[in-house]
Amino acid sequence: MKIDDIARLAGVSKSAVSLALNNKTGVSEATRQHVLEISRAHGYTPRTFKSNKVLSKKSSIIRFIACKNTDIVTEHYESLPFFNELIHHLTAFAGVLDHTLIISSIPIQNLKGDIEALENEQPSDGILMLGTNLPAQMIESLQSIHPHMVFLDTYFEHIDASFVAINNYLGGYQAGKHLLSLGYRNIGYVQSEVRIFNFIKRKEGFLAALKEEKLGLEETLTFAMNPMSVMSQEAFKKAVGEVEQFPSAIFCENDYMAISAIKTFQELDIKVPGQVAVMGFDNILEAKVISPELTTIHVKKDVIAKTAMDVLMRKISGQDESHMQISVNTEVFERKSCRVPNMDTEDHR
């Protein structure tokens, strides 16, 4: 086993492997742990380890696979807060169960063939498949690869497979109800330029909450953003500048877009929440760092990870090989980016 082999199995560069094994900066903690787990699983001992230190014996392998594309699950997806937290919890739960979590990032172009090649080279006890950006047809085709497989972060009601996902509809509904409960009525919506299942269901839930109050979304107050950028976005800035009646509040389909919106408003000298309230979805760590701190929908990433691992382990042990679809509920985390509007001010009605 050489560094080249570890890099190939980990789906990262040789330089990233070197940084991880030598405990140097330049890679995320998730990548570092991923590389170390692979090296341990294959009995590779870095020169930086003491020669008399024996690595833990090879444990059973669970394979976590992310399908890379250019939209959502990008080349360095594991450094993004949501995926970083999810992988952290999966790695921890796998360790408790005396399993090694091997993380592989595979381009979407030859996903099935590459997974089959990995399994032929190093068979796993089961596969956790990140399905965030996978279409239904591809999920159906992947089921034949392994008898023990669980798909995370998506589900399709018509597919007989095991899914553990966010209750996105509930989260969108909760966001709408929360903003309405604060008295906001002129509400804008920031959606992803890339339309995936999660975002579609969030919008459906949000619209349902508005409909209960006989409200809807104005087309002029619906904006589009890059869903994975936390920087100010020029297209959004331009669109905001062209709005005749500014919204009193906006809901963004994820926290990246919400943080981007806040930064854009700051550049335009629009006060949050004084002139516009901002609400996100996911509750990533950065939601507590941005100023003002972000009100958001909390996604229980630890519960998703534990639930997925439990379902997979029951399949592996033979206790329950039936398929199931599990949605993990969300909740509102109130912070400082939303407040009760001044009902005497026309802008907030």
From TrEMBL:
Pfam families, sorted: LacI, Peripla_BP_3
Gene Ontology molecular functions: DNA-binding transcription factor activity; transcription cis-regulatory region binding
KW Nucleus (keyword) present: no
Database matches in InterPro entries: HTH_LacI, LacI/GalR-like_sensor, Lambda_DNA-bd_dom_sf, Peripla_BP_I
Domain HTH lacI-type residues, every copy: 1-55
This protein's UniProt keywords: DNA-binding, Transcription, Transcription regulation
Domain of life of the source: Bacteria
PROSITE patterns on file: HTH_LACI_1 (PS00356), HTH_LACI_2 (PS50932)
Gene3D superfamilies attached to this UniProt entry: 3.40.50.2300, lambda repressor-like DNA-binding domains
Protein name as it appears in the record: LacI family transcriptional regulator
